[in-house]
Each structure stands twice: as C-alpha cells, then as structure tokens.
Design a protein that fits this description.
2 domains; Dna Ligase, domain 1; homodimer; DNA-binding; four-stranded mixed beta sheet
DNA sequence: TTCGGTGCAAACTCTTTGCACGACG
DNA sequence: CGTCGTGCAAAGAGTTTGCACCGAA
C-alpha cells in the first residue's frame, strides 16, 4: 500500500506572505548572481504568482497583473516567466491544450497530476513509492534525473459517475 | 526490484509491414464507422507513420511525405493526425519544445519517456510496478484513468559524464 | 551614469480554416 | 453523382524580438 496524499491547494484567499517571501528572496538572489536587476515589474510578477498556489497560464497571469499598481506588459511577463524557469521557481506544464500552463515550484513539495478530461479539474498528489520507483528506473538507465512530470488523464470521481 | 525494460525502437530499416497492417486496418475501420473516406493521402500518412517506430513532429512528417508518390499537403497532415488521435492510433506528446511531438500507439505496449535535456535523446521504457502503482493511486482518488504520460527530464548516461 | 529592462508593435512559429476544385464510395 | 477531402493561402493563437526610451544599481 502506498501512502498517497492529495496536495491540492484548494480555495484560499488569505495572504500567504510568510510562505511567499522565501521564494521572492530566492529570485532576488538569482538575479543578483546573474547581475540582473530587480525591477518593479519582476517583483509584481513574482508576487502575483506566489500569492496563489494554483496553476496558471501566461495570458491569465497577464490579466491578473492588470489589478496591480505596476503595469506589466505581456512581453515582460513572458520574459520573467523564462527567468523563473531558469532559477527553477516555476515549471512549465502541458495539459493537452495549446497554451502552456505554469505552476510555481516548492522544491520540497513535488507533486503529480490527475487531469479530468471531462471537467478539466486537476488533482495534485504526491506519492513517495512512486518517486522511489522512478529513481530506481533512472538508475537502471544511468539517467540523471533533473525533474519529472506525471500526468494521468481520465475521469474524476464526479464525472465518472455521470458517464454510464 | 522492478523489471524495467527499454522499449526503445532503435535503428530499424526493415519493412515492418506485418506489424503496420493491423494498424492501417484499424484506421480503415474507424473511417468506415464514421462514414469517412479512405483517400490516397490518408493512406500515405498512416503508412509513413507506421513505417517507423519513433516519435515525430508534424513538420517532420510533412517532409518525410515528400518522398511519397502521393503529394500530401501540410493541412492534410494535420487533419489526418487529428483523426488518428481520435481513433487512438496516435498520441500527441510534449517534450518541452514549442512544437508537438506525436508517436504512434500500440495499445498493448505503453511506455514512458526519459528525455535528455542536453542532447535531446529520448529513451522509452516500460515498468509494470510503475503501472500498478499508478492504478492504485487512481483508485485512491476514485479517478478513472484513460491514459497517462510520464516524462522524466535529465541527463542521459553519456551527457551526465560530460558535465563534471 | 550605465547597462539591463520595459513597452510596443511587428515578426515568428505552429496550427487551423474558408473556399473552390477533386475524387472516393 | 453527391459528399467528403484536398490544396492553397490566409487567418489565428501563442510567444518572441528589435528598438528607443526608462530606471535600478
């Protein structure tokens, strides 16, 4: 038996500042190390991303940022997402649609996805046995894993009932 | 210990007709059931895809088809790929580049991917324990799996040695 | 003051689509 | 023969980029 726990970030509205601070600091460090600048726009993007624990698409982020004091152009959003990817604070996903999905990464809390192909709902989960097994497989091939992505597509419990 | 076996289709040049026939028949059936026509172009696309056991991108397929007697336009390639996806003979993958990758599906031989982020090489593998564990996880969530995709990104044995 | 950053709009890439002609069933 | 399919070229969608001005360090 495997101990699988959902890691889904469900409906929050509080201010997870204590959570998001270390991430912004990581980004600041990264920028400093690369001789890059911490601009108002970059700060806005990072704050917006880490103020919510879900997945998002580039366009959605552009929209969300319209609520900010600092205006951030679409180009800057894409450019910043690329930087965040470089310093591994953000990952690019693919759920089968044409647009890219992103999600922020918490180094310690990796998770995989169950994606409902009917209602589009995404369930996150984490399973240690699965992680272990994957490491073992990589070992067999002398493959040095950097990261992985497991997406299981199908019908969630609600939708499965409606199919008959 | 898990029995993991590579399923990589490495360097073939023979004529796998006996293998590809049943697939074309499946497609013919599908077309017939839907009241669709089996055109020269569709046949060319299917033959080309199943004459090789690798992954391919749409553009690459367009190129490969230029060697055929029958000319097939880019539009038709995309349209046929969509049909092949509908009848589950082809799957669309995403290896992190902007273009889509496709691969043909053999219902009985599912596999996952190790993708080298340095040289781009893709290793296919299959591991029963992994499959079992995933089914178990789905069960925990009352999730009804249709298909899944596991991609492990990192460095292949060759590239890992060159890093130091 | 000095580079790197930003916004804008145009460019790009991959994919989809409207239309008139062509060919499978 | 009647549709469905095809090729073409143009349109879309998402993302990237060149350039001149702007601002963090």
């Amino acid at each position: 038996m495997s101990e699988t726990k959902p890691t889904q970030a469900s409906g929050e509205s509080g201010s997870p500042d204590s959570e998001s601070m270390p991430r912004e600091e990581q980004f600041v460090d990264f920028l400093a190390r690369q001789g890059l600048k911490l601009t108002r726009q970059r700060r806005a993007v990072v704050n917006e991303i880490f103020s919510d624990a879900g997945h998002f698409e580039a366009e959605e982020l552009v929209e969300r940022l319209k609520g900010h004091r600092t205006r951030v152009s679409r180009a800057t959003v894409y450019r910043t997402l690329e930087l965040l990817r470089e310093c591994r604070l953000v990952e690019k996903l693919d759920f089968g649609t044409q647009r890219s999905y992103y999600e922020h990464v918490s180094p310690s809390e990796h998770h995989d996805h169950l994606i409902c192909i009917r209602c589009g709902n995404v369930i996150e989960f984490h399973n240690e046995a699965l992680e272990t097994l994957q490491k073992e497989i990589c070992g067999n091939f002398g493959f040095q894993e950097s990261y992985h992505s497991l997406r299981i597509f199908g019908h969630c419990s609600k939708c499965a009932q409606t199919i008959h």
